[in-house]
Amino acid sequence: MPSNALNRRRFLTTAAGVAGSTFAFPNLLLRGQNTAGKKLNLAIIGAGGKGQSDTQAIALDHNVVALVDVAKDRLEDAAKRHSKLFTDAGEQAPATPPKLYTDFRKMLDECHKELDGVIISTPDHTHFPAAMWAMGYKKNVCVQKPLANTIWEVRELHKAAKAAGVITQMGNQGRTMEGQRLAKEWIEQGAIGTLKSINLWTNRPIWPQGPIKTKPAEVPASLDWDAWLNVEAFEPYFEYDLPDADLKRGKGLHPFNWRGWWQFGSGALGDMGCHIMDATFSILGQAIPIKIEVESGEVTERNAPTWSSLKYHFAAGKNNPEPLVVTWQDGIKDGAPNKPVKPAMMEGLSEEGWKKASSGMIFQGTDAVVYEGDAYCASPSIYPSPKFMETKQAMADGKIKKTEARSPKPNNPQGEWAHCIVNGGTPSSNFDYSCKLTEFVLLGNLAIRSGQTISWNAENMKVTNVEAANKYIKRAAYRPGWLKA
């Protein structure tokens, strides 16, 4: 085998081995699988942070022609990492390096004629303007989760994608995995009896939330603060006035601590819901809840709470012949993780295993439960254990069948999106699917922000019983110049 092939194999093996790190390496095994053999010209908006792994998902098989990041130091680092990706794989770096920008508008205005698609890996408040700008040029878009942090923006993205006729994707990798499909097939084909309830939880937030004190500060020399704010009204730069122990990555919003702000992020629920609620959304036939109950820590007009507990009420459907409640729990409540009580049917799972499940899901049936102790439903199990063995045998015997289409690029939503652009097909989390999933998630924030049980009329995009909650459906204002005309 040629030495460059060996190097590439070694690189891919190493990348897979660190998949559990903060920014997991997706499956990079893409080359040769695009049957049309076309290399796409792509741009990455938000090239630092999460954009690093999103770039690695496609960089060896397509052309990254532009990188955008509001922080010049992170932008330059992203460019160096892009070049190093090829040398680490034993391949020649592109002769023409990516063009570098701090403003996505300028990049799209200058580069749109050469682009096939855009990957958007920015803070939540930038998803909508960047995607709308790209789709205004009829560019295919892959947008990190959640698609936006208001329901109105999510619906506008869906309409714009339809009008532009582009191929779309949300970056929720669980949607591309085998585990989520297995869980749905087991439940639909009776492996756990009748589905009665669903429990979901996460240890987030792992960034500041709740009532937050801030203080004025100097804008970091490398940061374009105006571009970072984009659609939000300009305000002076500030930092957190909190004990250092409460700050995981720096004292400012950038690059990590923005998620607890309603303006810029969408709290623990918005950050993890599009992962953890994904299998539930699929199993319940992409239904939207009709009512949501809420309890939470203190909420402010600017900040999400340190913990929340929600009950999403669903009408009867295909996999739940009776009305069903989906519970969501996040954060630390009264000094302990805010998570459900382990069901009696899961006695085969050790207490240590249960304790380590910082995020997860339980689908409770009359005869058994489907359990996954991670955010993606990557490798679900069935309890009691004999029911799992019985289910595996039923699969081997063909009594439980594979009815869900599998992804051509498991654990790689960016690669799946690129594959579909080249070869045809529909990405697993295209906007027809992921806009409704994101709405399902963000409905919980309407309840959290209003502090009351809400009833939702999806057809009219309106909370029918708490008028005050409706002001959170859409951003109050958009700064001129940041939405493409």
TrEMBL record:
Pfam families, per this entry? Answer: GFO_IDH_MocA, GFO_IDH_MocA_C2
Q: Which residues form the Gfo/Idh/MocA-like oxidoreductase bacterial type C-terminal domain?
A: 209-317
Q: Which InterPro entries match?
A: Gfo/Idh/MocA-like_OxRdtase_N (IPR000683), Gfo/Idh/MocA_oxidrdct_glycsds (IPR050463), Gfo/Idh/MocA_OxRdtase_bact_C (IPR043906), NAD(P)-bd_dom_sf (IPR036291), TAT_signal (IPR006311)
Which SUPFAM superfamilies would you find in this protein's record?
Answer: Glyceraldehyde-3-phosphate dehydrogenase-like, C-terminal domain, NAD(P)-binding Rossmann-fold domains
One Gene Ontology term of the molecular function aspect: nucleotide binding
Domain Gfo/Idh/MocA-like oxidoreductase N-terminal: start-end pairs: 41-171
**Which ranges does the record mark as transmembrane?**
none
Protein name per its UniProtKB record? Putative dehydrogenase
